[in-house]
Amino acid sequence: MLKKRDLNDCQSLYELMVHPDVFPFVRHKAHSYEEFLFVTKQTMEAEDHGEIISRTILDEWGNPIGTINLFDVQDHAGFLGTWLGKPFHGKGYNQIAKEAFFNELFFELNIERIFMRIRKINIRSIKAAEKLPYAVLANETHKALYDEINQHEDVYDLYEIPKDLYTLYYLRHEQDVQEDHQLKEA
Q1: What are phi and psi of 4, to 5 degrees?
Q2: Model-level pTM?
Q3: What's the per-residue H, E or C state across the chain?
Q4: What pairing do the DSSP bridges indicate for beta strands 2-4 and 53-58?
Q5: Any residues with CB less than 8 A from the CB of 39 and at least 6 apart, and which?
Q6: Dihedral sign computed on CA atoms, order 129, 170, 75, 49
Q7: 14-53 as b/e: b if 16+ CB within 10 A
Q8: Distance from C-alpha of 124 to C-alpha of 28, rounded to nearest angstrom
Q9: What is the side-by-side order of every strand in the sheet holding 53-58?
Q10: Phi, psi angles (nearest 5°) of residue 152
Q11: What is the pLDDT along the chain (186 residues), one digit of tens a residue?
Q12: Which of 51, 61, 79, 165 has the fewest Cβ atoms surrounding its Cβ within 10 A?
């Protein structure tokens, strides 16, 4: 479902990224394939320096369909950025990719909190964030950060995914899966 970024995926990802329903919501925009290659190389180098964690989202056949990233990594926290190609919207890939990414971040890479900066006009992303049982609106609880991301204009809502809430969700979900499996065996 996820893999480290690879230049071999750039052509497919670029074609998906430039769709008008996707492009406005991509953090690192590229206006040409060559620029996308350059941005991907920079992303891979930034990951080597611990500034970003970036993965390619794959479909069930191993084809690249989007990216998921933790930007501005510092003090065991960072900002989530994710996009999927338009043909893959509404098919469950986003949820699966996020859970795989969060498991890696929290349980393998020592991240303590993930922030999501979502444009108030991006109704699709706001609804997706509000469906996450481990995400909380953080406009008030992290007021300084909220003010910083909206310093020029009130554009974004701030959501937080703390490790403890995600861990609780994960443990409950795993218990439900095990109980369901035991019931099917009985």
Answers
A1: -60, 150
A2: 0.87
A3: CEEECCHHHHHHHHHHHCCCCCHHHCCCCCCCHHHHHHHHHHHHHHHHCCCCEEEEEECCCCCEEEEEEEEEEECCEEEEEEEECHHHCCCCHHHHHHHHHHHHHHHCCCCCEEEEEEECCCHHHHHHHHHCCCCEECCCCCHHHHHHHCCCCCCEEEEEEEHHHHHHHHHHHHHHHHHHHHHHHC
A4: antiparallel
A5: 28, 30
A6: negative
A7: bebbbeeebeebbebebeeeeebeebbeebeebbeeeebb
A8: 20
A9: 2-4, 53-58, 64-74, 77-84, 113-119, 156-162, 136-137
A10: -95, -30
A11: 999 999 999 999 999 999 999 998 898 899 999 999 999 999 999 999 999 999 999 999 999 999 999 999 999 999 999 999 999 998 999 889 999 999 999 999 999 999 999 989 988 789 888 988 999 999 999 999 999 999 999 899 999 999 999 999 999 887 765 665 555 665
A12: 61
Q: Which residue has the tokens 């996707």?
A: 22
Tokens 């970024």 label which residue?
5
Query: Which of 122, 115, 160 has the alpha carbon at shortest distance from 23?
Result: 122
